[in-house]
Amino acid sequence: QLQLVESGGGLVQPGGSLKLSCAASGFTLDYYNIGWFRQAPGKEREGVSCIVSSGGSTNYADSVKGRFTISRDNAKNTVYLQMNSLKPEDTAVYYCAADTNIGRYCRFREFTVDSYWGQGTQVTVSS
């Protein structure tokens, strides 16, 4: 009943763009920080970006800074990840997670097994 659903993944050529969405149902995201994570084959899950409940503060992995932008529309109960200048190494399953806001800034470590997690959406960057 309480779900996060990612969408927007797909196949894109290097240098292309995708916009991922993370939509909540059964609960409101107004008071939740949201994180985007990804896991590539043979690699551990890594944090990509996160945003605080108000949208006033964001955090990005060094590997995506300047290329990805996280945003949220609490009225739509949705968080987005705009992915530009995509590289093959961005290929992964992308997951969103939600956890209660606990501070002024978001950190990847605040998202745990006890957080809400979506099912993931595949992003493949290939020529």
Distance between the termini: 39 Å
Order of helices and strands: EEEEEEEEEEE
Structural class: mainly beta
Gross morphology: globular
Radius of gyration: 13 Å
Instruction: Output mean pLDDT.
Output: 95
**Percentage beta strand:** over 45%
Major sheet description: 7 strands, mixed
Let me know the number of strands: 11
Count every helix, treating DSSP H or I runs of 4 or more residues as helices: 0
Helix content: under 10%
Residue stretches low in confidence (pLDDT < 50, at least 5 long) are none
At a glance:
The chain has about 130 residues and is an all-beta fold. The chain has strands at about 5, 10, 20-25, 30-40, 45-50, 60, 70-75, 80-85, 90-100, 115, 120-125. The strands form 2 sheets. Strands 2, 4, 5, 6, 9, 10 and 11 form a 7-stranded mixed sheet that branches. It has a 4-stranded antiparallel sheet with strand order 1-3-8-7, with no helix packed on it.
Question: What can you tell me about this protein's structure?
Answer:
With 127 residues, this protein is mainly β. Helices cover 0% and strands 48% of the residues. Strands 2, 4, 5, 6, 9, 10 and 11 form a seven-stranded mixed sheet that branches. β5 (46-51) and β6 form a beta hairpin. The model has no long low-confidence stretch (mean pLDDT 95).
Question: Notable features of this structure?
Answer:
11 strands; four-stranded antiparallel sheet; 0% helix; seven-stranded mixed sheet
SSE blueprint:
Blueprint (H helix, E strand, L loop, with lengths): L2 E5 L2 E3 L5 E8 L6 E8 L6 E6 L6 E3 L7 E6 L4 E6 L8 E9 L15 E2 L3 E5 L2
Parallel strand pairs: 2-11
Antiparallel strand pairs: 1-3, 3-8, 4-5, 4-9, 5-6, 7-8, 9-10, 9-11
